[in-house]
Every structure is written in structure tokens, then in C-alpha cells.
Amino acid sequence: MASLSATLRERTAAAHRRVEGTPFVRALLAGRLDRAGYALLLRSLHEVYAALEAALGAQPALAPLFHPALPRRVALGEDLALLHGPRWREELAPRPASIGYARRLGELAAAEPLLLAAHAYVRYLGDLSGGQVLGRVVQRSLGLAGEAGTRFYRFEAPPDALAQGLRAALDALVVDAPQHEALLDEALAAFGRHEHLFAELQAMR
Predict the structure, then answer these.
(1) d(CA 46, CA 95)
(2) Counting runs of H as helices and runs of E as strands, what totals does the chain give?
(3) Which domains, ranges and CATH numbers included, belong to the chain?
(4) Which residues, 6 or more positions from 125, have their beta carbon under 8 angstroms from its beta carbon?
(5) N or C: which end of the chain has fewer CB within 10 A?
(6) Is the pTM above the cut of 0.90?
(7) Burial class, 147, CB count within 10 angstroms (exposed 0-12 / middle 13-18 / buried 19+)
(8) CA-CA distances (angstroms) from residue 143 to 91, 116, 130, 136, 163?
(9) 21: burial class by Cβ within 10 Å (0-12, 13-18, 19+)?
(10) Region for residue 85 given its phi and psi (left: phi exceeds 0; alpha: psi -120 to 50; beta: otherwise)
């Protein structure tokens, strides 16, 4: 039987491609987002990461998924302070899709914490792989120097090693067949939430 991480990759491949093909992500990858548009993305991601990391941190059984170098909330705040200003929390509103995403993570933390693993897979593995390319695109397109404004993409450990460790932690989870399917469904739902968020952000451009 294929490992959980391999099955997640296979079952979400089409959804992943669909998200990558959205107009907003294409603009991001092509370096066509201005500073304001990029800051709105980060503000919405901050909403999601704040909820995800609070939920993961409260689940001892999921601790192997949550390497100390993975959390992104603080880095996102640093980038927002530089790109927008110190009052980014008050002046930038997260998109409704990100608020709904954060609410869903809170619901899972209370009722089905195992399914948080699907969101850790979608978000952190994306940051550790394609996110490394995005960091260079953002740095170049916004004319940023060094790590200023791109802390979100900078990890305190090698991204490849962190990704390998996250996959190993996912594969070590003890899940029965219904839980396995529920994790796959939740990962697909996570990609759908990203697609919704990117559509909202595109509509503001």
C-alpha cells in the first residue's frame, strides 16, 4: 500500500494544477503583482497560518508534523510590516475566504484534529517546494534586498530536509481506512479553499 504522503500527492495532483493555473497564481509567478496586491495575499495567509499553527500546537499527537522551523505566522507578520507598515493588522482586512478557512481549522481542532494533518501537508509542503521559487520571483519583481519582505519563504533549516521530515511524520500517523480517506478529502478541500481565496484576490486587482 502506498504511503499517506504519496497518496496525498497523487490524489491532489489535479487540484494542485488547477490552483496553480488560476489567474492570480499565474500573475504571482510571472511577477505581475504589485506591492499592495502581494500584501493582501500575505494578510490572508497570516489569518490561515495563525489558526493552523495554534491548532497544531495544541495537539500533542500531531507534534511530529510541527517542526520548530516550520511556523510561518511570525515571518508573515515581519513581511507585512515591511511591505505595508506597522499597522497592517488594522489597515488590511483578510479576505472572506481566508476567514472561512481559519474557521474551518478551528472546527477541526475541536472535533477532528487528525484532519489538520491534511492542511499541514498542503501548506507547508507547498512553502518548502514551490514557495522557494516564489520567494525569488517576489524579491525580483518588488525590488527587495536580501531577505527583507520575503521572510515567509526563508526557513531556519534546509527546506528539503524539512519536507522529508514532514512526509515521514505523515507516513508515521496511525490511521484506519476511513481516516485515510478523510485526510485525502480534507486535502482536496484545502486546495479548493485556496482556489476560492485566489479568486477573491484576483477580483481585487
Answers:
(1) 11
(2) 10, 0
(3) 4-203 (1.20.910.10)
(4) 163, 166, 167
(5) N
(6) yes
(7) middle
(8) 23, 36, 20, 10, 28
(9) exposed
(10) left
pLDDT digits (tens, 9 = 90+) for 12-62: 999 999 999 999 999 999 999 999 999 999 999 999 999 999 999 999 999
Residue with cell 510571472: 30
Alpha carbon distance 87, 85 (integer Å): 6
DSSP output for 39-83: HHHHHHHHHHHHHHHHHHHT-GGGGGG--TT---HHHHHHHHHHH
pLDDT digits (tens, 9 = 90+) for 131-142: 889 999 999 999
Contact of 52 with 122, CB cutoff 8 Å: no
Tell me the one-letter amino acid at 104.
R
Question: Which single residue is written with the C-alpha cell 472535533?
Answer: 111
Cα separation of 64 and 26, whole Å? 33
